UniProtKB/TrEMBL annotation:
Binds 1 Mg(2+) ion per subunit. Mg(2+) binds at E122, N124, E349. InterPro entries: Glutathione_synthase, Glutathione_synthase_a-hlx, Glutathione_synthase_C_euk, Glutathione_synthase_N_euk, GSH-S_sub-bd_sf, GSH_synth_subst-bd, PreATP-grasp_dom_sf. It comes from Rotaria sordida. Keywords: ATP-binding, Glutathione biosynthesis, Ligase, Magnesium, Metal-binding, Nucleotide-binding. The lineage of its organism: Eukaryota, Metazoa, Spiralia, Gnathifera, Rotifera. It catalyses: gamma-L-glutamyl-L-cysteine + glycine + ATP = glutathione + ADP + phosphate + H(+). Residues 181-283 form the Glutathione synthase substrate-binding domain. Its EC number is 6.3.2.3. This is Glutathione synthetase.
Length: 460
């Protein structure tokens, strides 16, 4: 389980202190998951790719949905303006790459014949994490089952998440066609998810190309050491850059001054391949989930792949705009009667910022008062089935135990990737999964905070 670690920061210590490295929290054995729903998620991933690709390259369609968010969200507005700026350049990126993870939860149904149904949570197109860690925990669970329950080994599906990520990144680097050009991992200044990135770097270097060089850098480093020539070639010191792999740049907090914005613009203005490119980043905004509920939208996206229309529609949970909470008296009453039955989610990409329960009405009123209705939307809450599991935590419980039993539920992520040139997909792959489980009392299950656990699926 080498590199199965993350960096822990305390309130008093924001330094890169290696002594703060702790293991990822994980489940001792895998959690059960319905085989039919898992296979459906894998199948639908190809449809998700069509959706992301269509949105990324049909800017008019993207704008028709993003326009309301752009008006009230300065971060998205700045990104959209940078996209326009890039399109005016006399050169363009050699290719564009996107690693995607589509997250689902199981909704418990009242209908006896359909005990659970797959529900879409979000589509992630930037800084997709824990793919390498998922492969490691799969190996651990396989070893555990081999010793304790070998008869269950056939129910543990193959996990190619790690291979998908390193293959996609290496393919992108090769497409740049300069064996001396390097790869930049753009990471936050206080990065916790170091183990996952170390494994990806190790995987890329394992291809045996002795000339491949990888640098883990922050936007501050970009400001100090990067330059762009008149032909759009990006340099880090004297090294030409082939591939920019973002593990940052998805949160306004990453852009805390204008120098960082200018560093980002330099990267995006270069011919280097970006993972993801800005158009793929924008295609991952949560506001597009609302559009999926519109029949005409799905028919436009999947006009050449009609088989995905019903598949996509079938995984959607009930969703509402904030304006509907103002104008729909029945919905208002539902929120007042059962505020715990809804999630309040932000419309742009990124985890966190999910509200549920007694404070929901207060948050909605605040959003309306601040005229930020288009920055959020409501979604009916998902109640997944509960598993009892043995947990290896990164932090001790009240009894000073690191291994203890928990009632948990999980969120399944399915991995995929795209590389495109001139709007045409030249490389596509689907493979691998990540199950993140959390205590049933938690709305969210962050791995970094220790509230969630890296898990695997056991198909039943």
């Amino acid at each position: 389980m080498a590199s199965f670690v993350q960096r822990c920061f305390t309130h008093n210590d924001n330094t890169q202190n290696d002594s703060n490295v702790i293991p990822y929290p994980f489940t001792i054995y895998p959690s059960s998951f319905p085989r039919n729903e898992y296979e459906k998620a894998c199948k639908i991933q190809y449809g998700i790719h069509i959706l992301v690709q269509y949105l990324a390259y049909d800017i008019d369609l993207m704008d028709s949905i993003l326009k309301n968010l752009i008006e009230c969200d300065p971060f998205i507005r700045r990104l959209r303006n940078i996209y326009n700026q890039i399109q005016q350049l006399p050169y363009k990126s050699i290719a564009e790459t996107c690693i995607i993870r589509t997250d689902y939860m199981l909704q418990q149904m009242n209908i006896f014949r359909e005990r659970t149904k797959l529900r879409l949570v979000e589509i992630n197109t930037i800084a997709v994490g824990l793919g390498a860690a998922a492969k490691l925990i799969h190996k651990w669970h396989k070893r555990f089952l081999k010793r304790i329950h070998p008869e269950l080994l056939s129910q543990l599906p193959k996990n190619e998440s790690y291979d998908l990520i390193i293959d996609t990144l290496f393919k992108s680097w090769k497409i740049y066609n300069n064996s001396k050009a390097i790869i930049l991992f753009i990471v936050p200044e206080h990065e916790f998810n170091i183990g996952d990135q170390m494994l990806i770097e190790k995987g890329l270097l394992s291809y045996g190309n002795s000339s491949l060089l990888i640098k883990h850098v922050t936007f501050i480093d970009i400001c100090q050491y990067c330059s762009l020539d008149s032909k759009g070639i990006l340099y880090f010191n004297d090294f030409e850059v082939a591939l920019i792999y973002y593990r940052s740049a998805y949160d306004p907090k990453h852009f805390y001054n204008e120098d960082i914005w200018q560093a980002y613009i330099m990267l995006e203005s270069s011919r280097a391949i970006k993972c993801p490119s800005l158009r793929y980043h924008l295609a991952g905004m949560k506001c597009f989930q609302l559009a999926l509920a519109e029949k005409n939208f799905l028919e436009k996206i999947f006009q050449k792949h009609e088989q995905y229309i019903d598949d996509i529609r079938d995984i959607l949970e009930e969703m509402f705009t904030i304006d509907q909470t103002i104008n729909d008296s029945i919905l208002q009453q539902r929120i007042l009667d059962k505020p715990e039955s809804f999630y309040l989610k932000q419309s742009r990409e990124g985890g966190g910022n999910v509200y549920c329960g007694s404070s929901l009405r207060e948050h909605i009123d605040k959003i309306i008062a601040n005229k930020e209705s288009n920055r959020y939307f409501l979604m009916s809450r998902i109640y997944p089935p509960i598993n009892s599991s043995l947990i290896r935590s990164s932090r001790p419980n009240d009894k000073n135990e690191f291994i203890f039993e928990k009632q948990i539920n999980g969120e399944l992520g399915i991995f995929g990737s795209l590389i495109s040139q001139n709007e045409i997909v030249i490389y596509e792959r689907v493979g691998g999964s990540l199950l993140r489980s959390k205590p049933i009392i938690n709305i969210e299950g962050g791995i970094a905070s220790g509230q969630g656990f890296i898990d695997s699926v056991l198909l039943v």
